[in-house]
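pipeline stage [seq->struct] | target=Nucleoside-diphosphate-sugar epimerase | organism=Agromyces flavus | residues=315
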Amino acid sequence: MTEPFQLIVGAGPVGTALALRLADGGSRVRVVTRSGGGASHPLVERVALDASDARSLADAAHGASVVYNCANPGSYPLWEQVWPPLAASILHAAESAGAVLVTMGNLYGYGPVDGPMRRETPLRPSDHKGALRARMWEEALAAHQAGRVRVTEARASDYLGPTAPVSSGLLPRYAERTLTGRPATVFGDPDAPHSWTAVDDIAATLAVLGRDERAWGSAWLVPSNPPVSVREVLRALGSRVGAGEPRLRRMPRWAAASLGAVVPVVREVRGVHYQFDRPFVVDASETTEVFGITPTDWDALLDATAASWRDRIGR
């Protein structure tokens, strides 16, 4: 590409939605993944390379105006090994290109909080995953403050939407059972209020943060609908596909602890158990006030999600 373009690292649900949004708006996009996969669009170029290879990624980012970190290193047990070199490489690529760095983040860095999470809520992680995400942001912010690169971050809660992967994340795993009429065993309190973030709303927020200089030097929460419990979401999804009332069994803490001793993924889920044991609520009103981003209509989001998840589950 000789024209200015925007580079996206990662082609999961968020990276793909972002690529299509940018391309539909007339921007040229380069998507970097190990496999060379990604969104199919005339304005999207797909490149196969290892994004943790700093030299190769910097070459791919040459000429980019914005670099979006939408990478997903895989399962939790791999984070400590994979994320540090990957994040450092993406930061280096943005700095080398003179591009804005926009990172797709999450809420793990806040740890347990009393009340809604807001932009000014301090980062106080309670497990290694949250500490790692907080450290990644602090390193990027230090580079921004030193004048080396312009950075910002979008922080979203658990994904909801037709493209959110089934069998990835707790809610889709529960829905994989309840949408086929089977009982599901859940972590935490299924009746605790919880914020859910639409994949398309994440993409919309990332796109705005990349072009609006008011965003740079700070992290922003992605606007989400009012909080709804796990039970209520599963009930609403089930009603749309005729699955009936969800049958939920709460996993006792002792059982989660025992299982976590032998299953690494369960052990990692226990580290963020607080997110489902108590209200887990996002207040992104400041993002809406500054940038005008509002969440997708809740009923429309559920309609699209239920239909897609039902089809992919094979009902």
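stage status: PASS
auto-comment: The radius of gyration is 19 Å. The longest strand covers residues 64-69.
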